[in-house]
Amino acid sequence: MDTILFSQPLSEADLDRAAAIIRGGGLLGIPTETVYGLGADGLNETAVLHIFEAKGRPQDNPLILHVPDAGWLPKYCQDIPAEAYALARHFWPGPLTMILPRREIVPLRTTGGLSTVGVRCPNHPLTLEIIRRAGVPIAAPSGNTSGRPSPTTAQHMVEDMWGKIDGIVDGGSCGVGVESTIIDLTVTPPRLLRPGGLPLEALEAVLGEVAVDKAVVSKLSDGEKPKAPGMKYRHYAPKAPVTVVTGPAEQSAAWIAANCGEQDGVICFSEFLQLFSGHEVHDLGPMGDLPEQARRVFDALRRFDETDVPAIWAQCPGPEGLGLAVGNRLKKAAGFHLVEAAP
Ligand code: TXA
Ligand code: MG
Q1: Is 107 in the pocket of ligand 1 (CB under 6 A)?
Q2: Would you place residue 227 in the very low, low, confident or very high pLDDT band (cuts 50, 70, 90)?
Q3: What are the residue boundaries of the YrdC-like domain, all occurrences included (predicted)?
């Protein structure tokens, strides 16, 4: 299949062509502020099936519907609690997905057979405009091949999807860099299913108590079912095995320097780069700059696949603010294989 690359700046005609791909049941790589998505008409079962095929994604892993504003919620959801509108007022457009009861119009193919649906309003002008022009909600998982790190640039989308989809819209690098935070509003108290670009603390400020799903912080044992089906799959994993080294940054850096093999790769904070000269090393950003770490984490993981490193060692931020999401992505890449650097 020929893939069209819509480069910046997009003309009016480009936006119409991109919207026509969605309306016609095609697949389109779309930029969002979190990560790039692999989009299709979320109400068109055949188009949605093609998303699963292009990604190699298990059919029981539901997709998120992307809408241009909260006014679209009642079209696809029912029994919408007041909290949903309060969250939308505070955080949309932005990196927050809400799980709500689905209406019949949303195909079970989209929701992975569930009676609920995830909805989010992404904060990217090109994608908002394409959804409005298409006139349908865009179902979009992250645009990576299943199991690979999520794409945060149009180039990453090209790496995974060139020749497999109708078009890719280049909207620049993603400003947030980790996927949306997912909150389940069908339970009391609301439950965090995936940490993401909106910190848990921001949700708590609006909702009060928020429960945190076990799959967020630990590896589930065999047979245990997470509430977000996607949390059970191996994720974000480079070819080489990853080990996350926790503990205070000076100690984790020293631990990695003392224990890693000569050929091994390293992901570390900027402050410790000089400890690892001679290694394949990726800079996660300054220790205190969580937004920068979020923007870099997937590219750091992805770049190792162009190398032959036999193993990868990663430093990891603490769980405050965006650190919960950055740490979760690193730990999932490591299959929750962690080492504590003793103080
Ligand atoms: O930032 C994002 O959310 C990006 C961009 C493209 O919007 N999308 C994204 O989609 O990360 P995906 O498919 O890679 O991750 C969606 C996660 C999966 O873990 C899935 O299981 C969960 O959301 N999910 C979707 N619908 C759900 C539902 N009804 N109930 C529980 N979990 C759901
Ligand atoms: Mg994904």
Answers
A1: no
A2: confident
A3: 12-198
